[in-house]
Design goal:
- The chain is α/β, with parallel strands linked by helices.
- It folds into two domains: 10-210, 2-enoyl-CoA Hydratase, Chain A, domain 1 (Alpha-Beta Complex); 214-269, Orthogonal Bundle (Lyase 2-enoyl-coa Hydratase, Chain  A, domain 2).
- The chain is built from eleven helices and nine strands.
- The protein has helices at 34-48, 71-79, 89-105, 122-128, 156-163, 165-174, 180-186, 196-212, 215-227, 233-249, 251-261; strands at 10-15, 18-23, 55-60, 110-115, 118-120, 132-135, 140-142, 177-179, 191-192.
- The strands form two sheets. The protein has a six-stranded mixed sheet with strand order 1-2-3-4-6-9, with helices on both faces.
- Strand 2, helix 1 (34-48) and strand 3 (55-60) form a beta-alpha-beta unit.
- The longest helix is centred in the middle third of the chain and has 17 residues, at 89-105.
- It starts with 9 loop residues before the first strand and ends in a 12-residue tail after the last helix.
- The mean pLDDT is 94.
- GO terms for molecular function: catalytic activity.
Length: 273
């Protein structure tokens, strides 16, 4: 993105083909306000419009990832005149978050979550829609909604997709909090760092791998993975074969096979791509 959007709740930093998005409300452990939800949606819309952007790294300021929804927004919604059904302010507040997290889930770019401290509620959901999640040594994960008398309405489907129904039931229905090691064993995160230095190293290695993978092929692969289980397998494989043929005849497939034969890195692995 030539011009990063102005954000009040996020810090944005471009690093080559990656954009680091830092949730920046440390005074409330980066609790997600309506404004933050709107700004995240804007950032991901802009990322999709920039072909040079290949990865988005999401982390939190002040030692925490995200403590969930902002209680003050909920109090504000309670103070509004109650509406019925979809006119209810609580419906609109909750659904806005769901639309944003679905947008992040379906982004064609690689989304990396660097989780530290509180990873609760909406923050837990955000981690569950990342392509790669790394936990720092302080990370604690949980779905505390039922202990607050509410439900994990927008994140629950993504948690089930991430770790399966059996484990999602245990976490959601008991309102459990777990550490990074257990989160890794369940598949919520992929790696656990034992120190800040190791966390930085893991992120750097991941971004190095991003550079080695062709951006269009990566986007097509991610879209294909999202289709699994949502349409008949035969139909899906027919479509996938068509996309494979288009890819191998396209510029990335041509360059990739040529680079392999010539024993050199493909052009998208360079710093100027």
């Amino acid at each position: 993105m030539e011009h990063l959007p102005h954000c009040e709740t996020l810090l944005l930093e471009r690093n080559g083909p990656a954009l680091q998005v830092t949730l920046n409300r440390p005074e409330v452990r980066n609790a997600m306000s309506l404004q933050m939800v709107a700004e995240l949606a804007t950032v991901f819309t802009r990322v999709e419009q920039d072909p040079t952007m290949r990865a988005v790294v999401i982390r939190g300021a002040g030692g925490h990832f995200c403590a969930g929804g902002d209680i003050r927004d909920m109090a504000g919604a309670r103070g509004q005149q109650a509406g019925e059904g979809r006119n209810d302010p609580f419906y609109q507040l909750n659904r806005a978050f769901g639309q944003m997290i679905q947008q992040v889930n379906e982004s064609s770019r690689i989304v990396i979550a660097v989780t530290e401290g509180a990873v609760m509620g909406g923050g837990f959901g955000l981690a569950c829609v990342s392509d790669l999640a790394i936990a720092g040594p302080t990370a604690k994960f949980g779905m505390p909604e039922t202990s607050l008398g509410v439900i994990p309405a927008q994140i629950a489907p993504f948690v089930v997709e991430r770790i399966g129904l059996t484990q999602a039931r245990r976490l959601a229905l008991l309102g459990l909090r777990i550490d990074g090691a257990e989160a890794c064993s369940l598949g919520i995160v992929h790696q656990v760092a034992e120190s800040e230095e190791q966390l930085t190293g893991m992120l750097g290695q991941a971004l190095d791998r991003v550079r080695l993978c062709a951006p269009n092929a990566t986007a097509e692969t991610k879209a294909l993975l999202h289709r699994v289980g949502h349409e008949p397998m035969n139909q899906l494989l027919d479509s996938a074969a068509e996309k494979f043929a288009a890819a191998i005849r396209g510029p990335e497939g041509t360059e990739g096979t040529l680079a392999f034969m010539q024993k050199r890195p493909p052009i998208w692995a360079g710093n100027d791509y």
